[in-house]
Amino acid sequence: MAAYDDRDGWIWFDGALVPWRDAKVHILTHAMHYASSVFEGERCYNGKIFKGVEHSRRLLKSGELLDMPIPYTVEQIEEAKYAMLKANGWTDAYVRAVAFRGAGPDMGVSAAKNPVRLAVAGWEWGAYYGDAKMKGAKLDISKWKRPSPETIPSAAKAAGLYMICTMSKHAAEAKGCSDAMMFDYRGYVAEATGANIFFVKDGEVHTPLPDCFLNGLTRQTVIGMLKEMGVKVNERHIMPEELEGFEQCWLTGTAAEVTPVGQIGDYTFEVGELTKRVATDYEKLVRA
To answer: Contact 94/75 with Cβ under 8 angstroms?
Structure first.
């Protein structure tokens, strides 16, 4: 597959569709130096972006949390997404909206005078974890921990917060794993590098309380689905030693969708009936 900077197609950038290869920024763009960037990952199914408006709202909220007001409305962002999809002729695609501090008169930590820019790109993307959707992903346990919300704006989907996720996933892949599970700063089970995590025990579902990491939109969707099924969902702090007693496990995220987990470190899980049902029902929901 061609590198992401060398493809045919169109990207929406600051209010206009531009040829893919022309969607560029200057080397002194503030975001490149100080991580002043927020983004959204979304999927379009059969011509409709799943929870697109909710993603656009979260993008604006993330900008607010970084003291970086994005100069577009939810409606304008939605129009940009669909304009990009139409220009590329896609009905099924991954959509990436990214807002960032551009180059301007400030080139230090402070960047209040620099413009906030917005781009919307997309690409055709299959299963994030490949064949793990069928047999269950294998996860490493990261040495890095999700930090305290007193140190970062943990409710923002901010680019800088993914640095330790990239490092964790690189280490996991070097061990032959698909991803890594992370603990939080207190030692509780938190999430994977780009997805939330769920466990099953005795017919009930347990999932970490998102009090220091992103409460994913897919996570919220799946919790709603489980409650409609009559399955009890326990949102709580989960200790590492509890992993041994869980029977099933899955990840959720826009990219991950619903992906079964077969192993985390030395702990193994079955790809059980509830996991399969959630994955199947989610697929039906997003394509409804």
So the answer is: no
Given a cut of 80, whether residue 153 has pLDDT beyond it is: yes
**pTM (whole model) above 0.90:** yes
Rounded-to-integer distance, Cα 260 and Cα 197, Å: 10
Q: Using CA atoms in the order 101, 25, 214, 181, what is the torsion angle rounded to 10 degrees?
A: -140
pLDDT tens digit sequence for 113-124:
999 999 999 999
The domain defined by 10-123 folds into D-amino Acid Aminotransferase; Chain A, domain 1 (3.30.470)
Pairwise CA distance, residues 270 & 281, whole Å: 19
Tokens read off for 270: 């079955």
Please, what is the end-to-end C-alpha distance for the chain in angstroms?
Answer: 30
The predicted-structure confidence for 191-212, as pLDDT tens digits, reads as follows 999 999 999 999 999 999 999 9
Q: What is the mean pLDDT of residues 122-145?
A: 88
Nearest residue to 116 (alpha-carbon basis) of 163, 181, 72, 52: 72
Hey, what CATH class is 132-286 in?
Answer: alpha beta
The residues that are catalytic are 157
C-beta neighbour count of 3 within 10 angstroms: 6
